[in-house]
Write a structure and sequence with these properties.
Length: about 200
Amino acid sequence: MTRLTIRGFDIRKGYLDAERQGQILTAVRSVVRAAPMFSPQTPFGKPMSVRMTSAGRYGWFSDASGYRYVDRHPRGTEWPAIPESVLAIWSELVPGPQRPDCCLVNYYEDRARMGLHQDRDEADFSWPVVSVSLGDDGLFRIGNLTRGGKTESIWLESGDVVVMGGAARLTYHGVDRIRAGSSTLLTGGGRINLTMRVVD
Ligand code: SIN
Ligand code: MN
């Protein structure tokens, strides 16, 4: 495991060994069975290229009315619980008793991407967002506290964990591309990213 900091993002390369990645993937599969992936519409009317679902009390959602957290999957059911194997990562890295109440599950096919954005739909920015990467490599771009300016990029690989907190909690970030076939973890290929958040 190596640790580096880029613009306040605490990046733990190789944090999860192969066994833990496999356990988490199994847990994510059962989340997806209970709460199938969907492609949200952006407020601008375009479907996102990333497919997503959530676990926890809240799930992230977007449509013509905007970005927000909702307490039900679009088909009307509650979100499944955040798996213990995923919560364990948070507990290891974030001091104190607070636990996340949302785990967003993003799935990137080969050509999916996520534009630069801030995570700012949560009530209290003193809690970090903890990101877990599984499957194919993703080129993660880190910007600034406001839109524009120079950016830095790093490939996130399967098993990498990033803590986005402190002064960097509202830093713009996104995923430019996926390196297809770079991991054998997911049988169908692609990249899964989990982000744990404290919503309220
Ligand atoms: C996100 O910002 O929600 C996802 C980041 C990632 O896929 O690495
Ligand atoms: Mn984000």
